[in-house]
Amino acid sequence: MLKFALVLALIAQQSQTVSQGVYTDDQAKRGQAIYSAQCASCHGPTLNGVQGPPLTGSDFVSNWNKEPLSELANKIRNTMPQNAPGSLMPQQAVDVVAYILQVGKFPAGRGELHSDEAIKKITWPASSAQPARATNQAPTFPPAGNLAQVMRGILFPSSNILFTVQTVDPGAKRTAADANKDGGFNWMLWGGEIYKGWDLVDYAAIALAESAPLMLTPGRKCENGKPVPVNEPDWIKFTNELAEVGKAAYKASQTRNQETVSDITNDVADACLHCHQVYRDNARGRNPLDPANKASRCTK
Q1: 18-123 architecture in CATH?
Q2: Which of 80, 171, 173, 291 is 20–30 Å from 15 (CA)?
Q3: Is the pTM value of this prediction over 0.85?
Q4: Which tens digit of pLDDT belongs to each residue from 64-104?
Q5: CA-to-CA separations, 72 to 51, 63, 78, 163, 221, in angstroms, rounded
Q6: CATH T-level assignment (fold) for domain 147-296
Q7: Domain ranges across the chain
């Protein structure tokens, strides 16, 4: 009997998929009520998307199937509804997830889904869908600026927004007086009060992830006219590192937790430093900030 109990306990600790009945019909009904009141205006009454993206269908599943179910619940809990993020209780967010699973034709079971450690072990079924093959070749775009311009126009300001989270809480209400006294990024001027602080952190992280590949654009020149070493293995490695840390920063920002984002900025700084040490700061005995050092950049 003891052995049987241990087997049951071991099974309970193992991962489940959403195809194994991880919620109940009653829970999905509660989630439907919350969804109708808080989510339907953006995501549509049938979850097919309106202002916000669809929450059902193959594209939705493919967006989430590499993450445990807890990530979807956390996304809802921390960032939704858009006009009042963080207003749902953890269990309410999980109830909405149950409703999403029901609409997605994932079966109900006998036990409810809870906001606890167990949900972190629930995954999506492996996708067998093959990526669609492009029928037409995508257009290519020659570089419009040199590497320094891309760095200073996109990567540098985006990184600084993330670094500012170390001392400025993006969720705190800002005033004109705050804008005048704060160092670093000026939350009041950026976006003309159109976007909320956490939204700006999201955008900065995505900007890092999406713009890092611009460092690999064929034909791009460095500020000193030398070609960017786009085929060098370590240059490619550093570029990938920056893209990945941008994705990690976005994931951290989705927690809406200042400390979590502050921690990830150490990785952002390291990613920048690894490349700078090899390709920017390599002039022997010369200050990297010395303009004369520019002549040696883009070379090892």
Answers
A1: Orthogonal Bundle (1.10)
A2: 80
A3: no
A4: 999 999 999 999 999 999 889 999 999 999 999 999 999 99
A5: 19, 10, 10, 26, 41
A6: Four Helix Bundle (Hemerythrin (Met), subunit A) (1.20.120)
A7: 18-123, 147-296
